[in-house]
Protein: AsnC family transcriptional regulator
Amino acid sequence: MSTLDQLDRALLAALAADHRATVVALAERLGLSRNTVQARLARLEASGAFASFERAIDPAPLGYPLEAFVSVHVRQKQLGEVVARVAEIPEVLQAHGLSGSVDLLVRVVCRDAHDLFRIDGEILAIDGVERTETSLSMGELIPYRLGPLLDR
Structure:
């Protein structure tokens, strides 16, 4: 979806404020019919406007209270193979390709420092990985958000 109208933005802002809101609650909040809200949500979903709802699940209750970021330096010709292998590691939540001196930034969760050492070792063992630099997250200071962009 290339452009969002005012109603789409209002609907997304309402969802950002309460992602568990029902269609009926959204309709009441925005002064719209349930059918209008349902049709708009379906159109937004079909357009790819929604990211994975897995983002709303905290890994800590699953036994993974620690989070770390692993900067991965890769032999360029093997980037695709490395990404495919990194994706096989269950503790990898996310990975971004970067420009600059680091090729991949991998977000992982772990049970403790020993578990992080194991995960880092799994990444290092992938053919094409030259080296890693791991930083333990001390805490999320600004949670993932889109509200300010929607309000802009």
Q: What stands out?
A: Residues 6-54 form a domain with the Arc Repressor Mutant, subunit A fold (CATH 1.10.10.10). The two ends are 18 Å apart (CA to CA).
